[in-house]
TrEMBL record:
Keywords: Membrane, Transmembrane, Transmembrane helix. The chain crosses the membrane at residues 43-67, 245-262, 269-293, 313-337, 404-421. Residues 1-21 are annotated as: Disordered. It comes from Actinacidiphila bryophytorum. This is Integral membrane protein.
Amino acid sequence: MATSADGPAGGVPDRHDGPLGESERAELAALRKRFPAQKKWRAALSAVLITLAALLAPLSAVAVWVADEMADTDRYVATVAPLARHPEVRAAVTDRVTDAAMAKIDLDALLSNVKAGDRPELEKALGSLRGPITDGIRDFVHQTVATFVASDAFATLWEQLNRQAHAAFTGALTGDSDTAVKVNGDAVVLDLAPVVAQVKQRLLDRGLSAASLIPSVRTEFTLVKSSDVRRVRTGFRGLQIAGNWLPVVTVVLAAAGVLLAARRRRALVAAALGIAAGAAVLGIGLAVFRVIYLDHLPVGANQSAAGEIYDQLVRFLRVTVRTVIVLGAVVAVGTWLSGSGRRAVRVTNAWETGIGAVRHATGITTTGPVGPWVHRYRSALRWAVVAGAALALLLWPYPTGLVVIWITLVAVAALAVVEFLDGTGQPDGAGVTST
């Protein structure tokens, strides 16, 4: 008996030659149900992961700011040192130090050196002049303090003070009492005792002997005052630790969401825009919190100085926000342009046409042996440019939004060179005749 694929000798029958059996229909129905369900499950998980990445983006920025700002002495000093030259901060420090000095060198302090028998007659003779004399002494002290605070010596002292306490907010928010910055109740304060000591010596040099009565006491200058300080103190250590790995988790979640998506290009655009939106929300939150913080300052507080201090303390965090927004926009636009959508194709065609027009205008009709080689490896060269731009961004110590823009412009220029050197001036496969 002959054996065939569809014979009775036990061969495998060709199921396409006849109608499906009941079991085959059931198996096909199960497969049809399984794949749509799996596709929906992957799409849902992809959306969840991308959403989590977008939500973690602002928290990652805060964690990086806390970890880097408090661990790096130079960056901390770069943040607080310029405060010594802000007019509002100088005025606030001048008033605070003047008050501390005048608490010890009022008119009664000046009369302390007068003989006990002569003091009643002298006080009687002064009469109504006591007030103007006291005001004159205060003006003299205030002028001396203001002159010192406006000098380079104060700027140097301010920087030294903060450099010695480079873990300023770390020490404050973790309860370290050995730094110059501490948490007193609901305020973060800076001790100005060295400034008072310098002013005391200057007053003595200018002939105000009563300044010798100024003791070596702690003089507090409030950097931040808010009822939220204690709550921030609770989570500060967690943010400091999370600064090293939370951004990585955010990127991994976004990458996993993109890889699980059926339309990965669209998912990458969504992830980039979502992370940029999260950073934008953080930027808006910083602006709103600034208004709330200034509105809740105690009566008599210098709001201008408090605003300057707030702006300096969150300066690098705002830089991070702008960087993430610009980077997200660049990635989204680049991903969209690499797609096959109608509008994206129009843009890329216009790009190639423009490069071709430049080549034609310069009279370059051939690029020699380089042209065919570039045409053959054009896709690889484009990916190399993108990888180089990503590597430059990763290796940049502290990138800003402007850095991202410049790296993007350099990458675009490199892509233009690749397109210009493409000797065929035609898309892949154009002009090739099949035999």
